[in-house]
């Protein structure tokens, strides 16, 4: 195996004094050292080769580094380059043995040390290039969060978001330039005004929920009231059953065909941060509403495709799982969905009409799987008395795509 041509060195606010002898040697021997202006300034006394600023856009700079393959190149990064850092991005484009990394303590480690928090009990969320709504699912009572800030305005944005959702009593710790001579920390309640903040900062949060705080439950089957809708929504109890049959696994991609309010796709993404979903909805008003629901419930990454299936399915990323929840009028959609799904992919479809049930029955007869009829009854008034009133029954078809020889 050839010696690594690319080194990634983590450097903190304490500069060269905090670097190991190995890290110092690597920087000194590099033909080219690439880093942000702050990193290059911190390591200036060690650099013997050419110093080059890491510019923008980020993807162009990654490409520039890769074009230097074979020459001794060192990239400087903040703290631990493999924790929300450039190291993992570069590694995706390299063969094993091409990269060598010497990390420094991450800003997360510094923050936990200053706050006396157990690092394994803390949830880390980055708001660098991400929407503030990403925070929403993590706002759980008594949780401890560390938020990686995009700039000096992030702490104020975080505090306003917390207060607006009923978490104004939460204790917020703003930590600036951790690990260096200019380190500073101050604390406040989220509902209080905060002073100006250095661009290099992160935020520690001790969540305290008010009585009416908007806490997103961890279970499947969220209250229908959490979604804006026009009646076209997979109702709570049916949704909980449907999600259990869809059986989300980390990193999987879901197609939610005929998404309505987007409730299935949104809850799919809430099950794990690496899950992705594509909501396909032909009605433009509903498609726009899905986007608003996704923001409110903390999954702004939900992809929304406005169009009619099966035509709208032709150019989408391949799914691992498909849910068909819109009105079924033809078997054509199943043909395209089965072609898109890999062997072992899962397909679940719900129908409430007789015509839809007939289509599901035909699929069951041809391909096997399971057919289940789900009935829900809710207490209602009958004059001065009470009785259970049945909702429309749902027929559910579930199957796994098998190979031709199975």
Automatic annotation (TrEMBL):
What SUPFAM superfamilies does the annotation carry? S-adenosyl-L-methionine-dependent methyltransferases, Tetrapyrrole methylase
Instruction: Give the record's GO biological process terms.
Output: cobalamin biosynthetic process; methylation
What taxonomic classification does the UniProt entry list for its organism? Bacteria, Pseudomonadati, Pseudomonadota, Alphaproteobacteria, Acetobacterales
Annotated protein name in UniProt:
Precorrin-6y C5,15-methyltransferase (Decarboxylating) subunit CbiE
Positions of transmembrane segments:
none
Indicate the secretion signal residues: none
Q: Where in the numbering of this chain does the Tetrapyrrole methylase domain appear?
A: 6-192
Q: Which UniProt keywords apply?
A: Cobalamin biosynthesis, Methyltransferase, S-adenosyl-L-methionine, Transferase
């Amino acid at each position: 195996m050839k010696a690594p041509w690319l080194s990634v060195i983590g450097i903190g606010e304490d500069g060269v004094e905090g670097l190991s002898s190995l890290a110092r040697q690597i920087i000194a021997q590099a033909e080219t050292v690439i880093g942000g202006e702050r990193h290059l300034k911190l390591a200036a006394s060690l650099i013997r080769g050419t110093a080059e600023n890491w510019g923008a856009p980020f993807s162009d700079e990654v490409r520039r580094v890769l074009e230097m393959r074979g020459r001794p190149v060192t990239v400087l990064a903040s703290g631990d380059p493999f924790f929300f850092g450039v190291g993992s991005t570069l590694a995706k484009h390299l063969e094993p043995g091409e990269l060598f990394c010497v990390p420094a303590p991450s800003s997360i480690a510094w923050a936990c040390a200053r706050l006396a928090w157990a690092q394994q009990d803390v949830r880390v969320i980055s708001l660098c290039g991400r929407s503030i709504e990403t925070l929403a699912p993590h706002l759980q009572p008594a949780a401890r969060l560390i938020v990686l800030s995009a700039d000096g305005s992030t702490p104020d944005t975080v505090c306003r978001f917390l207060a607006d959702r009923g978490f104004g009593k939460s204790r917020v710790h703003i930590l600036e330039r951790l690990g260096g001579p200019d380190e500073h920390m101050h604390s406040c309640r989220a509902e209080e005004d905060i002073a100006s903040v250095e661009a290099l900062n992160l935020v520690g949060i001790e969540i305290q929920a008010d009585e009416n705080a908007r806490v997103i439950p961890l279970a499947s089957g969220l209250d229908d009231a959490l979604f804006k809708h026009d009646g076209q929504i997979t109702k709570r109890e049916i949704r909980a059953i449907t999600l259990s049959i869809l059986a989300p696994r980390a990193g999987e991609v879901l197609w939610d065909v005929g998404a309505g309010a987007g409730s299935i796709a949104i809850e799919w993404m809430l099950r794990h941060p690496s899950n992705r979903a594509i909501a396909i909805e032909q009605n433009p008003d509903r498609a726009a509403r899905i986007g608003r629901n996704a923001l409110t419930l903390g999954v702004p990454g939900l992809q929304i495709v406005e169009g009619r299936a099966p035509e709208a399915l032709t150019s989408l990323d391949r799914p691992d799982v498909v849910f068909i929840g819109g009105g079924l009028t033809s078997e054509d959609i199943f043909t395209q969905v089965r072609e898109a799904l890999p062997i072992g992919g899962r397909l679940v479809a719900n129908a409430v009409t007789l015509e839809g049930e007939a289509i599901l029955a035909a699929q069951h007869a041809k391909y096997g799987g399971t057919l289940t009829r789900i009935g829900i009854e809710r207490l209602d008034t009958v004059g001065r008395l009470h009785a259970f009133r049945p909702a429309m029954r749902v027929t559910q078809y579930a199957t796994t795509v098998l190979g031709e020889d199975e």
